[in-house]
Amino acid sequence: MANVRSTYTDKLQFFGNNTPQELVQRFGSPLYVYNENILRTRCRDLKNLSTHPKYNVNYSAKANTNIHLLRIIHQEGCVIDAMSPGELYMDQQAGFTSDEILYISNNISSEEMMNAIQAGVLMSVDSLSQLEQYGRLNPGGRVMVRFNPGIGAGHHKKVITAGKETKFGVTPDNMPEVLRIIAQYRLHFAGLNQHIGSLFMTPEGYLEAAAFLLSLAETLPAEILHKLEVIDFGGGFGIPYHKYEGEAPLDIETLATGLHALMTEWADRTGYTGRFLTEPGRYIAAECGILLGTTHCVKNNGDNRYAGTDLGFNVLVRPAMYDSFHDVEIYREQPATDGPLMEQSIVGNICESGDIIAKKRLLPEIHEGDIIGMLDAGAYGYVMSSPYNQRLRPAEVLIDAQGNAHLIRRRESLADLMAGYETPGNGAASR
Ligand code: LLP
Question: For the segment 34-53, what is each residue's pLDDT rounded down to a tens digit?
Answer without folding.
Answer: 999 999 999 999 999 999 99
